[in-house]
């Protein structure tokens, strides 16, 4: 009698507890996504500016395209920086690579009459080489990538200025826009995506369909397409491919990864090459857009990219983060930058906001990681 | 037993790091369905030996034979492909990654082809869960980070991973050293199971109490050299401990042995004659211990 009583009283309690564990683990699962903080932040910033900028035109289609374009340019390099940071390394030479790549495109095309596609390919080849050297130096010397790429921050900037002045006597090269028409490769980095890809994206619901029917916006700037495309590919790679698993492993514990048969060195070299490529994509779009190259382009972009990635939930120590988070980080960046402009707040305050966002994001991320690592 | 081909054999293997001779002239045979315990004090060369076996280091002299065929591994990946799985002390696990991601790290199962080739997560999650269930660990959610598992569970994930990927030789580096008694016994039981499954197991430890119950043979290392291999039938627990302590330095060795026996005695005494004299005083006045006078 007694034993049955205890059994009865124990069984429902156990079931209760099980249910509770399930519920907690569901929430934990949701909270464990690295981009959660960035998503909340993006919604918050969006709500704030919708309220604060009413009637200013920030949220007309043209205004939206405006801040999306800012976000997109940063997002392109932030995606690559995110993969690299998840892989456990930094690249501080991204900004300088942007400047150098612009010069490498403009000078051969304008001064030496190269077809634009050849000049762009030259820039990509040089970027690949820079990334390869960065990766190999980090691998072979075991030095922190912070130092190695800090060196390249100055080397590449100096190379850009030096080469430009040596060959043209100037640090700015204009007149690229005359070479764009008819160049199949340059078309990938210039103008707007109006018809084919644009309608395809609208069908897929990636962009609000009212843009498609709206005559005030002729198309989506190509930078936004690159941004979304790169984010999608990077997310796919991280979540669904063996290579993505290797990136997480290399950043989480390089030694453990190596001992499990992951080619850590190759992974890191390829990631450094990808950041250099992303800087070149950025430079291509910028050069096509403005029609000129300037050796000081891309200044501080490496830090902005890191900010976007960290706001996106990546850990500075590697092994954790997401490409979608980086995209959200870039989106927040774009919304705040343009939002401050639209709402008429002095733009000096933008940097204050950026710094505060960064600190809040890092503190939040650290807290979340501790939560995730708590014993089950 | 002697007519069988050893699953893995080392023939006069030496490893030098510059002028340091980390291993000299080590020979060892390990057969499948056997547990070879590699014993040795700190600095005896255990770690170098297993790193050589698992492809982290390449031997300076000598050769290794895998299933009778000469083998040389350029990196851990080659050793893995050849069927030598090593569970390092650091477990080669990334705490922030999920159990499944860790389980399949470096050998992800894929579906699809070309650019659409992707990890088969459904299959991977199921296998990870099943393999963990086989060793009695119920994983609620294989996507939870490994960092949330206890030390013993992590050890088991690492071993389960090695076994799952068709290891012929399983090398375990101090798998029980950081574990409590209960968790250690889980791991030891799993080692016995791996042996029953036909693996050749090399079990590195300096804890004879963990080694003796599961071992079939012992190899003792000291200062980079081998003191020889022994079948379990040939040696007693005390003799193994004896040899581990250094052989030549008889005095300290005797002392250690005596201390060990006295501990046993003291335990028995404390269990049997609880209400006799206090245990501490009994042992300190006990005559046969040579430790008291000179020993240390």
UniProtKB/TrEMBL annotation, chain A:
It holds the Pfam family BPD_transp_2. It is found in: Cell inner membrane. The keyword Transmembrane applies. Its main location: membrane. The keyword Membrane applies. It is a multi-pass membrane protein. InterPro entries: ABC_transp_permease. Keywords: Cell inner membrane, Cell membrane, Membrane, Sugar transport, Transmembrane, Transmembrane helix, Transport. The chain crosses the membrane at residues 36-58, 64-85, 92-110, 116-134, 146-167, 224-248, 269-288, 300-317, 349-368. Part of the binding-protein-dependent transport system for D-xylose. Probably responsible for the translocation of the substrate across the membrane. Belongs to the binding-protein-dependent transport system permease family. AraH/RbsC subfamily. This is Xylose transport system permease protein XylH.
């Amino acid at each position: 009698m007694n034993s049955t009583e205890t059994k009865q009283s124990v069984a429902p309690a156990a079931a209760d507890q099980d249910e509770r564990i399930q519920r907690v683990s569901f929430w934990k699962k949701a909270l464990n996504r690295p981009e959660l903080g960035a998503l909340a932040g993006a919604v918050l910033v969006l709500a704030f500016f919708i309220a604060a900028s009413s009637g200013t035109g920030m949220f007309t289609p043209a205004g939206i395209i405006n801040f999306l374009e800012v976000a997109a340019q940063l997002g392109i390099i932030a995606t690559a920086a995110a993969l690299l940071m998840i892989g456990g390394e930094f690249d501080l030479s991204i900004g300088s690579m942007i400047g150098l790549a612009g010069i490498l495109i403009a000078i051969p095309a304008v001064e030496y009459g190269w077809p634009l596609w050849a000049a762009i390919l030259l820039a990509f080849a040089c970027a690949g080489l820079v990334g390869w050297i960065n990766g190999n130096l980090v691998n072979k010397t075991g030095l922190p990538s912070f130092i190695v790429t800090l060196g390249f921050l100055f080397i590449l900037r100096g190379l850009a200025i030096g080469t430009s002045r040596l060959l043209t006597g100037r640090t700015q090269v204009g007149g690229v826009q005359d070479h764009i028409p008819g160049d199949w490769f340059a078309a990938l980095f210039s103008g707007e995506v109006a018809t084919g890809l644009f309608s395809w994206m609208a069908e897929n619901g990636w962009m609000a369909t009212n843009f498609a029917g709206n005559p005030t916006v002729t198309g989506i700037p190509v930078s936004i397409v690159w941004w979304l495309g790169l984010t999608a590919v990077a997310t796919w790679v991280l979540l669904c491919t063996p290579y993505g698993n290797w990136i997480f492993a290399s950043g989480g514990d390089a030694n453990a990864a190596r001992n499990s048969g992951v080619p850590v060195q190759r992974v890191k070299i390829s990631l450094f090459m990808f950041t250099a490529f992303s800087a070149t994509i950025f430079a291509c779009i910028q050069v096509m857009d403005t029609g000129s190259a300037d050796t000081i382009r891309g200044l501080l972009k490496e830090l902005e990219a890191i900010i976007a990635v960290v706001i996106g939930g990546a850990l500075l120590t590697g092994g954790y983060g997401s490409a979608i988070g980086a995209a959200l980080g870039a989106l927040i960046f774009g919304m705040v930058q343009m939002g401050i402009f639209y709402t008429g707040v002095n733009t000096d305050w933008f940097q204050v906001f950026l710094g505060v966002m960064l600190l809040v994001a890092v503190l939040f991320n650290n807290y979340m990681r501790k939560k995730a690592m708590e014993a089950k | 037993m002697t007519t069988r081909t050893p699953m893995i054999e080392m023939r006069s293997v030496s490893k030098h790091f510059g002028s340091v001779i980390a291993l000299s002239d080590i020979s060892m045979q390990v057969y499948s369905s056997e547990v070879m315990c590699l014993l040795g004090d700190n600095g005896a060369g255990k770690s170098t030996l297993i790193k050589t076996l698992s492809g982290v280091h390449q031997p300076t002299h000598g050769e290794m034979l895998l299933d009778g065929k000469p083998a040389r591994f350029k990196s851990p990946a080659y050793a893995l492909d050849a069927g030598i799985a090593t569970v390092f002390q650091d477990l080669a696990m990334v705490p922030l990654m999920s159990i499944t991601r860790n389980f399949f790290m470096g050998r992800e199962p894929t579906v699809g082809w070309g650019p659409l080739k992707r990890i088969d997560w459904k299959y991977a999650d199921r296998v990870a869960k099943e393999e963990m269930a086989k060793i009695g660990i119920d994983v609620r959610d294989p996507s939870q980070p490994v960092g949330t598992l206890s030390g013993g569970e992590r050890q088991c994930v690492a071993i389960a991973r090695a076994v799952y990927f068709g290891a012929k030789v399983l090398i375990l580096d101090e798998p029980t050293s950081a574990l409590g008694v209960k968790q250690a016994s889980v791991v030891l039981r799993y080692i016995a199971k791996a042996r029953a499954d036909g693996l050749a197991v090399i079990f590195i430890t300096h804890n004879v109490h963990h080694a003796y119950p599961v071992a079939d043979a012992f190899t003792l290392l000291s200062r980079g050299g081998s003191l020889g291999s022994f079948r379990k039938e040939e040696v007693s627990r005390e003799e193994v401990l004896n040899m581990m302590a250094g052989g030549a330095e008889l005095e300290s060795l005797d002392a250690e042995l005596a201390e060990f026996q006295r501990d046993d005695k003291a335990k028995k005494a404390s269990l049997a004659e609880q209400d006799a004299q206090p245990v501490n005083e009994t042992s300190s006045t006990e005559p046969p211990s040579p430790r008291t006078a000179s020993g240390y």
